[in-house]
Design brief:
This protein has about 450 residues and is α/β, with parallel strands linked by helices. The chain has 17 helices and 8 strands. A 5-stranded parallel beta sheet has the order 5-6-7-4-8, with helices on both faces. A 3-stranded antiparallel beta sheet has the order 2-1-3, with no helix packed on it.
Length: about 450
């Protein structure tokens, strides 16, 4: 027997040598998948010149390792391992999931096709605006977005001054500054040219947004209601295009009112840590806003509403020439608002009880009064809760009583802190119109 006994297969103990185990493990790991990247070794028997695979060798005779043809080894492997007929492999699939996937894919393809088909189509209103001389270099998509998302269409249902409770002095100032110049532009020329910007500031829930809608309704103007999110975009330079298109469309559709709610989020004070895109957006807005003051013939008004006037940029504050303080409603305004809210409901309140409620709601905003009346309206529902199935209409419910309002006062509290009121009053003294709003403000 040739070779070392430690390197050969022992018949008595039936073990493999290290070389045999290495070849066997190599074959099992690769599984004959990559025929071209590894050399093929086979062991032959000198006595009968019969070739065997490594794992089928019986260990008799002198064994040698030789390099053989890859094609012959592959043929031997396939002949011993594969069946006579090999059927093609079919990928398994679930009917429900595949159908949903096909439906989703088909829908997305149809949507993409429709977008491609409508990409070049624009509405008639957009075409008319793009053909206007003041609409130079405007993107049709941005114009369509402004017409669909920013312009608030009232459809003839405007807001009247009688819909706003209290604020007598503020209404008079707005009528003098805004309404009359828009209705009689031929009278307000020269030094009497109207202001192009009005800032409404004060506690939240006092009716600043409602005043802006009323201005647009009374002046018969196109109302643009925007916010900071309406002008921002993830694409660089898209926000500036939106601002430029907004003012261009407003000039085309004048008389127009651009109302910006929570303007402090758009025109905050600029600083070094501010992002470049936000700075460019503010700069473009201020440039377009400043262009209104140079052309007195344009009947265009920008109204800003904010609860935090001290955070406005100085340049923006300068452009809002008229800065009006909208305070909390006084006792008379609270009573008027409460009467309007409960007028359509069945109640047992008399004037004495109503005056007592107005005294107890000192410091409440208009929004707080609405919440209070809504909470009191649930009183009859709670009283008949065990037998609620017997009641079919609201007329069959018990009336709202004074006790329902007193119970609601324990739940609904004022949302404006006294310290915030002090800040508003101080800012009004420094930057607002030097006018006494005692009859509009709360009773001291």
């Amino acid at each position: 027997m040739s070779g070392s006994p430690l390197m050969e297969k022992n018949n008595s103990t039936n073990f493999y040598t290290a070389r045999q185990m290495l070849l066997k493990n190599h074959k099992q790991k690769k599984n004959y998948e990559n025929w071209s990247s590894h050399p093929i070794f086979k062991r032959t028997n000198k006595n009968n010149n019969k070739r065997h695979r490594t794992d089928e060798s019986d260990g008799e005779g002198d064994n040698e390792v030789e390099v053989v043809s890859k094609d012959s080894v592959r043929a031997d492997f396939l002949a011993n391992k594969l069946p006579a007929v090999v059927k093609p492999f079919v990928q398994p699939c679930k009917k429900v999931q595949s159908s949903q996937k096909i439906t989703s894919s088909t829908s997305s393809q149809k949507a993409k096709k429709n977008d491609d088909d409508n990409e070049g189509e624009v509405s008639k209103e957009v075409e008319e605006i793009l053909q206007h001389p003041k609409a130079k270099n405007l993107d049709a998509k941005i114009v369509d977005r402004i017409l669909n998302e920013i312009i608030e269409r009232t459809d003839g249902q405007g807001v009247d001054w009688s819909d706003i409770a209290g604020l007598k002095s503020a209404k008079e100032s707005i009528r003098e500054i805004v309404i009359l110049p828009m209705l009689k532009p031929q009278l307000f020329v020269g030094l009497r040219a109207p202001s192009k910007g009005i800032l409404l500031f004060g506690p939240p829930g006092t009716g600043k947004t409602l005043i802006g809608k009323c201005i647009a309704s009374q002046s018969r103007s196109t109302f643009f209601s925007i916010s900071a999110s309406s002008l921002t975009s993830k694409w660089i330079g898209e926000g500036e295009k939106m601002v430029r298109a907004l003012f261009a469309i407003a000039r085309i559709k004048q008389p127009a009112v651009i109302f910006i709610d929570e303007i402090d989020s758009l025109l905050t004070q600029r600083n070094d840590s501010e992002h470049e895109s936000s700075r460019r957006l503010k700069t473009e807005f201020l440039v377009q806003f400043d262009g209104l003051a140079t052309d007195h013939e344009e009947r265009l008004l920008v109204i800003g509403a904010t609860n935090r006037p001290h955070e406005l940029d100085e340049a923006a504050r300068r452009r809002f020439n008229a800065r009006l303080y909208i305070p909390l409603p006084n006792k008379q305004a609270r009573c008027d608002l409460m009467r309007r809210l409960i007028a359509a409901e069945k109640h047992t309140l008399n004037e004495r009880e109503l005056n007592e409620l107005c005294e107890q709601t000192k410091g409440y905003s208009g929004a707080d009064i609405c919440c209070l009346c809504r909470e009191a309206a649930y009183g009859p529902i709670r009283r008949v809760m065990p037998d609620l199935e017997k009641y079919e209409t609201k007329e069959s419910l018990p009336p709202i009583t004074y006790q329902d309002f007193t119970a609601a006062l324990d739940t609904v509290k004022a949302t404006v802190a006294p310290s915030d009121l002090t800040n508003y009053i101080e800012w009004n003294k420094q930057f607002g119109r030097k006018k006494d709003y005692a009859e509009d403000g709360d009773d001291d």
